[in-house]
Amino acid sequence: MKIKIIILLIFTGYLSSCNNLLEEEMHSQLTDNFINTAAGLESAVVAAYQPLRQYYGNERGMTTTVFGTDIYTYGSDGSFKFFNDYSSQLDARNTYSQEIWNNFYIGINTCNAIIERGPTVTDAPEATRNMRIGEAKFLRAHHYFILVQTYGPIHLSLQETTGVQTESSRSDIKEVYKVIVTDLEDAITKLPATTGSYGRATKAAAEHLLARVLLTRAISTAAETTDYERAATLAQNVIKNYNFSLLPDVFQVFAQDNEQNSEIIFAAQYINSPIYNGDGPNNASRFFLMEYDVQPGMKRDLPNGTPWKRFRPTNYLLNQVYQNREHDVRYEKFFKHVFYANNEASIPKVNGTPKYTVGDTAIWLPGVELPAAVINQKRYQVITPSKYTPKLYPSLRKFEDALRADNQANGVRDFPMMRLAETYLIAAEALMYSGNTAQAVQYINTLRQRSARVGKTPEETLLHQQAMTITEAELNIDFILEERARELVGEMFRWFDLVRTHKLVERVKLYNPEAAANIKETHILRPIPQDQIDRTTSNFPQNPGY
Question: Does 358 map to a domain?
Answer without folding.
Answer: yes
